[in-house]
Amino acid sequence: MGGSNIQKELTQVVEAPHPLIKHWVSVLRDENTPSSIFRSAMAELGRLLIYEATRNWLPTIIREVQSPVGASMAEFINPKEPILVIPILRAGLALAEHASSVLPCSRTYHLGMSRDEKTLLPSIYLNKLPDKFAEGARILLIDPMLATGGTIVAAIDLLKDRGVDTTQIKVISAISSPPALQKLKTNFPGLQVYTGAVDPILNEKGYIVPGLGDAGDRSFGT
Ligand code: URA
């Protein structure tokens, strides 16, 4: 009993305090930001959040390197343990855009989910996940808007069904709402969330307020 309480406390939400993160969130919020700029702001925000989230988390190896003036033991990212990046389509594509340039070794699996406008329930329209993930797989699950939490919870359930330990998942989001964060905390103790901002309100249509509107529509203009 005591153990599960301690585990719950391990669930972490990091609202990264960097001014560049605040800047890109503000660009995204502005309704006058055109689609092309919106998409690149989302990609920049993703780059910074991934950088923050992977601090002290990337597997490394040490080997000797000879520079032009001497030898040293040098640390590299281990190419045998790539980080698995899972963007939830379609808005997750923009937030995940720079993942492969931030991470020297990563592999991307796409997951397409949409939510019903009336019931707000998620459904899967594309699933490129393997049947089973390798033990210890480290996963960045990328969904820009954690609103009701229905989509992200369904996505994590899919990962759990495929053998993933939820303490090995980091969720990357642009803006989150308290109900979604509470759902994650209750369902997945030990999970970590890196977000650009936590906004207070979820309206009757399941949109985050003030938020940024529909992240997919604004990214792609369609
Ligand atoms: N999805 C979005 O794109 N925006 C929201 O505010 C909520 C869900």
The assigned structural class equals alpha/beta
If classified by CATH, what would the architecture be? 3-Layer(aba) Sandwich
| Tally of helical segments | 8
What is the residue-mean pLDDT, rounded to a whole number? Answer: 92
Assigned CATH class: Alpha Beta
State the domain count: 1
Helix/strand order: HEHHEEEHHEEEEEHEHEEEH
Shape: globular
Helix content class: 25-40%
Bound molecules: uracil
Cα distance, first to last residue? 49 Å
Radius of gyration: 18 Å
Q: And the CATH topology?
A: Rossmann fold
User: Quick one: how many beta strands?
Assistant: 13
Descriptors:
single chain; about 220 residues; alpha/beta; Rossmann fold; nine-stranded mixed sheet; two-stranded antiparallel sheet; 8 helices; 13 strands; about 30% strand; globular; disordered N terminus; binds uracil
